[in-house]
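Hi again,

Forgot to attach this to my earlier email, sorry! This is the prediction with iron/sulfur cluster bound. I've pasted everything inline since the attachment limit keeps bouncing my files.
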Amino acid sequence: MSREYDRDWDPDLYKKIDKYNSVKNLEQCLQCGKCTGNCPVAAITPSYNPRAIINDILAGSTARILDSDEIWRCMKCGTCYRGCPVDISFTSLILELRFAALESGHGQKYVVPANKFVFRSMEYGINFVPGKRGMERVMKLRSDMGVEPFPKVTPEAIEQFKAIFEQTQTLRYMEKLKTDTEKPLRLSYAEGRIVNE
Ligand code: SF4
Ligand code: SF4
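Structure tokens for the complex follow:
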């Protein structure tokens, strides 16, 4: 692990990351490790460790978190939250970490490719719309089951969906990400740690 200096540490990191106050109880973390023990990503990726990420945030390790690939590994399944004895929502924390990383110029490569889904969902008024081939398969499957080939969404609902995109400035945000200069991520976050192989 590269050497860390105290100037790289920020005692207010937790407050800065939890901008939306969505993980108010992070300081109650017991460091018990149940989140890591139950996590399917950690089971196949020895460097990935939600407990250690929480510890580093509370310690203020700015330099090692926002520019790390690790925070992009979580698939937000929520298993960690279900097993946490003090109800810490790690998935909310990961979302806030990713926003903070994007604001610092890291991680666009994980978000920009998903833009097409966002634009498509706005057009159809539902959260996830498959591409052409996926759509054909979904429609066939649904038809075989005897239900409508694709869920119908009323024009009013689509308008409301679009209005939410506009009010939250999501489109502008996604467009900006495409043009922002991306800084490289580092793979050194977990180097030097003892991990279970
Ligand atoms: S399970 Fe909860 S209390 Fe235990 S380490 Fe994970 S976040 Fe902290
Ligand atoms: S939400 Fe993320 S950190 Fe939690 S168990 Fe699922 S993959 Fe692991």
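The pocket of iron/sulfur cluster (ligand 2) is lined by residues 39-41, 50, 74-80, 90-91 (CB under 6 Å). Residues 111-179 form one domain.

That should be everything now.

G.
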